[in-house]
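User:
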Amino acid sequence: MRTLDFAPLYRGAVGFDRIVNMFENMERPDEGGYPPYNIEKAGDDAYRITLAVAGFGDSDLSIEVKEDQLTIAGALAEQKEGERAYLHRGIASRGFRRVWRLADHVEVVGAKLEHGLLHVDLERRVPEAKKARRIEITGDASEAPAIEGETVN
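Assistant: Predicted structure:
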């Protein structure tokens, strides 16, 4: 497997460390694909992440947003030895941690657990100051009133 060295990028540029970190994280393998999940586009600026978390309850799951990173983790309480005797155990009950990097202005607006599926709703909320706006063009510049002032020597 090839490994890329991003150290020269750190030396030659300032402020791009976040982008370089994203490239480094892309090389890391997926955590075994557990739990499986879907990412849906629910509208122009709306998204939904759905995780299959059979066996997990509200108290077993945690959702955290820090800066531009969404982390969903799950951990089941330890069962006492001999509490259950399984003949076949096909439902995974191990802990997990999934992390997604959110784009600018994407916020988590809600989460709900139903029928073994955890739905996390996201929405892009661009502030008014960042939205494109149309500037009206008014008359000729020569018609604009002159700005008067004093000359100071």
